[in-house]
Amino acid sequence: MWDGARIANPSLMDYKIATTLDVPDRIHALIVEDPEPDGPFGAKGIGEIPICAVAPAIANGIAAAIGARVRRLPLTSERVLNAVLNRSGGER
Fold first, then answer.
1. Sign of CA dihedral 38, 44, 50, 54
2. Does residue 48 have an active-site annotation?
3. SS in 3 state form for 33-45?
4. 3-state SS, residue 20
5. Which of 5, 18, 47, 86 is in Cβ range 3.0-4.6 Å of 22 for a Cys bridge?
């Protein structure tokens, strides 16, 4: 929730995550027939794009919290600890 330009949720404990109950009862999908030249037979991906930002967003959050980057997945506790101890840019 926002209070003007300020976030009103002080922590993730108060943050409401959207669920299927927040989606309208009916969704009308629109398919655009425009082949992708790089895809097999002109095929395009349809549902995987939103997940591409999850790992970088978490990695950026860790970097902001510890002041060092972890550049390999998965972002394990050992890699985070090594990045904190090295502080020279994190593990590569």
1. negative
2. yes
3. CCCCCCCHHHCCC
4. helix
5. 18
The active-site residue out of 33, 48, 78, 91 is: 48
Q: Looking at this protein, which amino acid is placed at residue 64?
A: A
What 3-state class would DSSP assign to 69? coil
pLDDT for 52 beyond 80 = no
Among candidate residues 72, 45, 67, 68, the one with its CA nearest the CA of residue 56: 72
Count the residues in the chain. Answer: 92
Q: pLDDT at position 48, please?
A: 65
Distance of CA 41 to the CA centre of its chain: 30
Give the contacts of 70 (CB within 8 A, at least 6 positions apart): 59, 62, 63, 79, 80, 82, 83, 90, 91
What's the pTM value of the predicted model, to 2 decimals?
Answer: 0.45
Residue 10: pLDDT above 80? no
- The DSSP 8-state label assigned to residue 31 in this structure reads -
Tens of pLDDT along 16-48? 777 888 888 888 888 778 888 887 888 877 666
